[in-house]
Amino acid sequence: MTQDLVVYAVYIGYAIGVLMTFGLILTWVERKQAAVMSDRIGANRAYLRIPFTQVKLVWWGLFHGMADGIKMLLKEDYKPKPYDWYAYMVAPWVVFTPVLLVFAVIPFGGMLHPGQLVPALAGWFGDRAYPMQIAQLDAGLLIVFAFGGVSVIGAMLAGWSSSNKFSLLGALRAGSQMISYELVLALTLLGLVLIYGTVDLDDIVRQQSGRIAGLPAWGIFLQPFAATLFLAAAIAENKRIPFDLPEAESELISGYFTEYSAMKMGLFMFAEFIEIAIIAALFTTLFLGGYNLPYMHDGGFSLPFGVEIAMSHTAVVITQVLVFLGKVFLLCSFQILIRWSLPRFRYDQVLKFAWKFMFPLALANLIVTVLVVWAMTP
Amino acid sequence: MTWLLANLETILLAIFGVSALVGGVLVVMLRQPMRVAMALISTMIFLGGIYGLLGVHFIAAFQVLIYVGAVMVFMVYVIMLLDPRDPATRRRFSGLVIPGVAVAAVVAGLLIRGVAADAGTGAAAAGAARGFSLAEFASAFLNKYWLHFELTSVLLLAAVVAAIAVIRANREDHG
Fold first, then answer.
1. C-alpha separations of B148 from A91, B60, B71, B152 in Å
2. Which residue(s) pair with B73 in the sheet?
3. Please, which contacts does A191-196 make with residues 24 or more away whose CB atoms are closer than 8 Å?
4. How many domains is chain A built from?
5. Does residue A102 lie in a domain region?
6. pLDDT tens by residue, A216-275
7. Which residues on chain B are in Cβ contact (under 8 Å) with A180?
8. Minimal Cα distance from A198: which residue of B?
9. Which of chain A's residues have a Cβ under 8 Å away from the Cβ of B77?
10. Which residues on adjacent β-strands are paired with residue A212?
11. What number is the ipTM of this complex?
């Protein structure tokens, strides 16, 4: 019992640590990548000076994220007179909390045997094994969507309670946009659920460790079309360029969170950056084989042509954790690449794109998948 | 510590139950529509927590997904668009207060009778719910209850048609 508590406390600490680090680093990656893409030197002004020396640690401007965080914590928390005080105070948390909670069902590694990993604790843990996932629920994917739906309410509450026309317009846009794209998002994944026959995310990852015609059975090979639609809809759900109409700076100042300052505004920004990581983690789990390398499973590799490579438990755990983080980071970087490549849609185009383009395509993808699965079922 | 761990589920159940009840009372007591909606959202989420504690995680997920993610999102959206400080919402009681109280009393009476009749078997039912997996739910849902589900979709279709008719009528009135 106490062993379970220790393991899960470590998992929860790891999850929060990873998400916060991603949130902080992505604020820097976003600026640095923009600089690289437009051939500038970019964010390189923040540094740490080692006390009593003139040695300045610049580290490619990595400290910009830290400077941002400290600035937001120390700034005056200016409170305008809101339309509804309670909704105004609670809205940032309604946006931020669900984003963190989603990570609870995402598996970030395979089976963990703490006794084998740390021999000193072997006596205490015995041969207990834990999947590296905070909550092993058979409704994993449903939970993701359940929490995803809650953050819409936060955006709308923030805009409505701010007593500012720009905020209200932003909330209006956020509401209709997120409702539309959530539907598309769920519809794109139905085909995948049909193929795997489960919504348990860990089971989905395990099934992707297999092989199909020599290729790893990754979701992106089974449903390439759904993968593209999912990524587009997820970026729209996260309200990022080219779908950042709810907070379009040039039109609405900063949309539904115009009236927030200091860390309350930071929570909105942070939620957005953490959601980039969450989308990347979901995409990794559903389409890119999760925490496993191609042909890898909990015991090592089984390559095509019958080559088997066994690995020790420690090596497997470290590889899986690092591979998961690596995949997530690459996908985050890809999302930021999209953010700096595409111009913003017009608002009617955003909604038309959802209902008249992506929704029918997702439906068509589902119908084709249903027919193929039906034809292949013996 | 050991006591806390042993009784964790009971304690959580008490917290979720009381919070859901407080949310429910607030839904009736509060006067501003948006605050009522927020209280209702918290009630729904705590009810989802109770389902999760009973071991039926997917029912909890559906509870939050459908009631909060769909129904309440639309309610919040509508309240946001309309003027919520409408004078009609400032009157403490509506004209239908007496029939409302009467119906509430009847429903409460029926519920209490039902719970009292089930008091002996309730624990067994909760025990049976454990291990009820999504697969079992899905096959029961689509084999046994598909007709109810399809009838609901007809009802929703009727609602959509009615909504379009109302919009049409308004457009013809105002040109």
1. 37, 21, 20, 6
2. none
3. A191/A223, A191/A226, A191/A365, A191/A366, A191/A368, A191/A369, A191/A370, A192/A219, A192/A222, A192/A223, A192/A226, A192/A286, A192/A287, A193/A141, A194/A366, A194/A369, A194/A370, A194/A373, A195/A222, A195/A223, A195/A369, A195/A373
4. 1
5. yes
6. 778 888 888 889 999 999 988 888 888 888 887 788 888 888 888 888 888 888 888 999
7. none
8. B135
9. 156, 175-176, 179
10. A215
11. 0.81
This prediction has a pTM of: 0.84
**Which of B58, B62, B69 is closest, CB to CB, to A138?**
B58
From A146, A157, A198, residue closest to B76, measured CB to CB = A157
User: Which residues 113-172 of chain A have a CB within 8 Å of chain B?
Assistant: 137-139, 142-143, 145-150, 152-153, 156-157, 159-161, 168, 171-172
Q: Looking at the domain assignment, is residue A316 inside a domain?
A: yes
Q: From chain B, pick out residues whose CB is under 8 angstroms from the CB of A160.
A: 34, 76, 79-80
Q: Provide the domain limits for residue A173.
A: 78-376
Question: Mean pLDDT of all residues in chain A?
Answer: 85
Q: Compute how many other C-beta atoms are within 10 angstroms of the C-beta atom of residue B98.
A: 9
Q: Does residue B37 contact residue A154 with C-beta atoms inside 8 Å?
A: no
**Is A116 part of a structural domain of the chain?**
yes
B1-92 topology per CATH: Four Helix Bundle (Hemerythrin (Met), subunit A) (1.20.120)
- Measure the CA–CA gap between B26 and B117, rounded to whole angstroms: 29
* Distance, CA of B74 to CA of B81 (rounded, Å): 11
Domain assignment present for A33: no
- In this complex, the residue of B69, B73, B80 whose CB is nearest that of residue A160 is B80
